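User: I'm new to structure prediction. If I give you an amino acid sequence, what do you actually give back? Let's try with this one:
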Amino acid sequence: MHLMIPFASALDPHFEGALRELELPNLSRLLGLLAPAGEVGDADETTPLPPHERFLAQCRGITDENPPLAAWRLRATGHEPGGAAWALLTPAHFAVGTEGVTALGPATLDLSEDESRAFLEALAVALFPADQGWRSAWLSPGEWAIAHDDLDGLEAASIDRVLNRGVETWYPRARRLRTLLNEVQMLLHDHPLNQTREARRQRPLNAVWISGCGRDRGSALPSDLIVDDRLRGPMTSGDLYTWSEAWKALDAGPLAQALAAVQAGSPVSLTLAGERQARTWTRRDASGWQRLKERFAPTRVSVATALEDL
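Assistant: Good question. You get back a string of structure tokens that encode the predicted 3D arrangement of the chain. For your 310 residues, that looks like this:
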């Protein structure tokens, strides 16, 4: 069993403070039974890919900076990527404020399936026509994909870096992507679909984010890997309370199960990812006396200390 938890820590001082206040007894005991076994990431929160995506790419055998996240996402949702160069499109609302433009994600738009499909169709007809070599795929109300040879190898920041943050920092360098993003914004401005939304007093879908470009490659994820991403939604929307409650649920559920597995002698690994690094812990070697001591006087580790540099 290898449990992987993205968004386990954050640089935002409010989230850091919440983590110090959280009571996570099962995680504390589990870390006391495990030993650090490696890290992914270079302690830099400004890289285009967050550590959890780099870790998962390495699990697939991909170590470069442009893993084909879109193609993998297509496979995960039952689509066949084939040999095309795919990219993810995330519908968004770019909110203009006094300090810049902030990307608000699909959760803030509350798109219905019909509405989401209508927006993608409008974009496909105007900007991604089949007769010019484009393909499009609807994956969910908050996630679409497009394919074209022009997208192959283009570097773009992950949507997980961009949500609820200033867009300027993460805007792509590739001219092709910048052009596409601008064309989408112009098309969506005052679009009839958005006029309908505004009449209902809903946020307009006024932008998309393009990421994960490339052709399908790499292997499948290990069969024993469990990725629990319940912290993602509240973290990327800045919902501190829900993030804290999700941590408590993780501690009471998957982490309690992992602790029980370790205590039963089963092989267990744990990977926790923040904004700068993903760190893995595995069962440390221990003598019979040490294991007996662990059973009756378990070591507890400060969770906040263990996660503060992630």
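You can read the tokens as a compact description of the fold. Here is one thing that stands out. The chain has two domains: 2-62+219-307, 69-215.
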